[in-house]
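Bug: C-alpha cell stream looks shifted between consecutive jobs. Job 1:
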Amino acid sequence: MGRARNPYGFVMALLLATLLNVAGERRFDSHALAQGRPAIGDPAPTPVMRDLRGGDRSLKELSGRAGLVVLFWARWSERSIDELRRLDAAARTLAAHGMAIAAVNVDRQSLGDDETSRLLHHVDQLAVRVPVLVDRGLKLFHAYGVVTIPSTAIIDGNGRLAYFLFGYSHEQREELFDAINRLAGITRPPPVKPLAVEPAALRRLQLGRLQLAQGHAASARSSFETAIKADETFPDPIVELAALALDSGDAAAARELLDRAAALQARHVGVRRERARLAALETRVAEAETTLDELTASEADATAAAYLGYLLHAAGDRTRAATAFDRAKTISGLDPRAYGGADSSSAAALRAMTAYRREVAAGRR
C-alpha cells in the first residue's frame, strides 16, 4: 500500500510560505498579493480621515507640493514605530522640499473613546509631530492592499501612487528614503569613506580621549595636537580640539577648527554635531535643534542624540528630550540623564554636553 496522502498538505504548505513571507516583511508584487491596490502611476486614494482629537483631515489637503508619505503603523509593531520616529525626525527637512507625512494608525478596525484616548497618550509619549490619523473600518488599509505592518505609500504631487513598500527591514529603510528623496528632489551625499589613518595619529587620538574622560584636559589637548602632527589629513583630533574650545566657551577658536576639519571631510559627523553645539552656545538654538534632529535620525551618534535631549529639556520639551536620551543610551550604553542638565537652564545643558561627550569619547574607537 502506498503512502497515504494528506489532502490539506499542499494548502497548508502554501499558507505557511505566505505567512513566512509576511513575517519577514518582504516586498510583494501588487497584483499577486494586493489585489485592488492602485498600480504605480494610478490615482492614489486620499480620503478625509479622522485625527486623534476627532477632527477631519483630508490626505489630499495634507499633501505637500512634491507629495505625501503615508505610513500604515500600529502600536504593537516595533518596526512601524521605528519608521514613524525616523519619518518624524526627517519631517522638517522633507517639508522644506515639499514632502509631507501622514501616519495612519491601523491598530484595529474600530476604536472606542477609551482606546482612542490610549492611542493619543501613546502618540504623545512618542512625541511625534506628524499628523496621526485613524483608519476607521480599515478602509484605507484595504484600499492599498496592505498585508504587513508597517507599509508605506508615497504619493506624488499629482496625486498618483509613486511607490509602495511592504515592511521596513534594514535594507528596505534606505530604499524607502531614497524613493522619498528622489520625489522631493533631495540628493543624499555619498557615504563617507573610512580614511586611511596613520597608526600613530590614531593612538594619540585614543589616548587624548581617555585623558579627557579622566579630567586631564591639558594632557588631552597635547595628545590631540600630536595626533594632528602625525597625520594632518585626519579630521578627528581637529574636531576634538574644537570641542575643547567649545567646552571653555571659545567660539572663535572652535569655528576656525571646525572649518579646518570640514575642509578635510565636509560630512564628518563630529563637525556637524559640534557646529550645532556652537550654534547653541551662540543662542541659535532652533538651528542647533534642526541639525541635531537630522543627525539623530540618520546617524548612530550618541553624543548628537544627547545634545538634542539637553536642548529639548532646557526648552521644557520633556517628552521629546526623553526620546533623545533613550536613543543616546541605546547607542552608547550611557544615559545622558546621569551627566547633568536637570535644572533646565541653557548653561546646565552646555555643561552636561561637555560631560557626556567626554565620557562617550573615551569609549569610542
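Job 2, same session, no restart:
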Amino acid sequence: MRGRPAAPLAVLFAAALALGTPAGATHAPDHRFIVVGYVTDEGRRPLGGVPVLVTRIKTGLEYRTRTEGDGFYVIVVHLHDDDRGERLAIRAGAARGEIVARFDPYDRRTERGTRVDVRGAELVEEPRRFAETLREWLAR
C-alpha cells in the first residue's frame, strides 16, 4: 500500500528521473510541461504497457514512457517560458495527433501541463482536468 508522498515535487522529480527526462532540466515548474492521461480501447477499457511518445515538433526531441496497468501515463517535457505555444506531437498505440503547450509564462509556481486521454485511435485533450489528475497521481 502506498502512502501520501511527503514532498510532491520530490516525487515528480523522481518520476522525471525514472522516465528518462533530463532531470537537471526539469527541476522547477517553469522548466517543464507535463502531459498526463489514460490510454483505453474503444470500449474504455484500460490498456497497460502501451508505448506513449511526445515529440517537440520544433526540435525533434522525444519523450517516451509506457502506460501503467490502469492505462495511466505521465511524460515530463523540458520546456521554458519562451516555448509557450510550441506544438507537441503525441503518439500512443494507433492514436496520433498534436497539442499546443499552453501556459502562463509569468506563473512560475503552478505546474504546467495538460491531460490527453487516448480512446482507441482518438486523442482527447482535457486541460481543465490536468491539475486534478496530477494531484491524484501524486497521492497514489
